[in-house]
Amino acid sequence: MRTFSSVIAVMVAAGAAVAQPVIDGSISGDNYGNDRSVQQVQTQFGDNFSELNAAYARIEGGRLYLTLTGNLEANFNKLELFFDSAAGGENTFSGTPGNDGSGNMTGLTFDTGFEADYHLIFRRGFDGSTDRFDVDYAVLGTANASGYFDIFGGSTEGSGTTGTGANSQPIEVGYDNSNTAGIMGGTGAADQDAARAVQTGLEISIDLADLGAPAGAFKVLAFVNNGDHNYASNQFLGALEAPQGNLGGDGFGNFTGGMNFDLNDFAGNQYFIVPAPGAMALLGLGGLVGLRRRR
Q: What is the DSSP secondary-structure string of 177-224?
């Protein structure tokens, strides 16, 4: 009779053999499994213009695969991604290195227990001569930052790859703007089933070495900001609780020219967890473990 440890080994090996996601801006066929976070509040930044419906993540082959379903308006609004994935970090955003004008967020305080180490910025729009999709990568608290422009080659949608600079390995990016469903516009409670039904949005693949080579679980915060990094929407993952309008620069929806509110003032955690690679491989085996323990 096959031993329990053998069953575990076979199932982990089978999980390891699952194909890597295709970076095309869709979770379809990519075996992401359950969402890591789902939206709780409707968007006040424009239904199907700027909305975050749900977050999905996998670790495969030493890379993080991450999808945020929804839309990012083609007006150079920012999709901000912060990673707490290394020792140390910033619980209050220092504004360093300040690439892409992100210094306007100096003073933003994250939830207790979240200390940001890395920052990615995504934006899309027409710059007066061409459509483009741009990516910034920064190591917070240092001078290390790199910007990559028009990675889709004259389009605001598609698939592309950054170069290297502050990041040691290229970052793969896909964006699909076809979502026309999801959470709807407003400040009320989101339909979470509708949010989970959305399959398209921003998808990335980044080498774990460029996130501090985390061996265990780590935390991610995503939110939609305006073009100057100083007027936050109500679209966060982990999600804010409804009813909730845009946070703006002061947490109350006002424009202040900066951003210095404290996320501890809002219920819940405005971040989600990406489990350790081994833990992800074992997801779904809890029932087997419990069965073994009862024998």
A: -----SS-BSSSB--HHHHHH--BEEEEEEEGGGGT--SS-EEEEEEE
Residue 116 covered by a domain: yes
Residue where the block lists tokens 């007027």: 231
Token pair listed for 197: 């039904």
For the chain, the domain total comes to 1
What residues contact 206, with CB distance under 8 A and at least 6 apart?
63, 64, 66, 120, 167, 169, 171, 172
Q: Check residue 279 and give its pLDDT.
A: 62
Torsion of CA 84, 86, 91, 94, to 10 degrees: -110
Q: What is the DSSP letter of 103?
A: G
List b or e across 24-54, with b for residues whose CB sees 16 or more CB atoms inside 10 angstroms: bbbbeebebeebbbbbbbbbbbbbbbbbbbb
Do the domain assignments include residue 4? no
How deeply is 291 buried, as exposed, middle or buried, from its count of CB atoms within 10 A (0-12, 13-18, 19+)? Answer: exposed
Separation of alpha carbons 229 and 123, rounded Å: 11
What predicted TM-score, i.e. pTM, was given to this entire model?
0.90
- Kindly report, residue by residue over 234-269, the tens digit of the pLDDT: 999 999 999 999 999 999 999 999 999 999 999 999
Residue 54 included in any domain: yes
Q: Which amino acid is at 80?
A: E
* Mean pLDDT score, 51-63: 97
Task: Name the residue with tokens 């934006």.
Answer: 123
- Assess if residue 226 is contained within a domain: yes
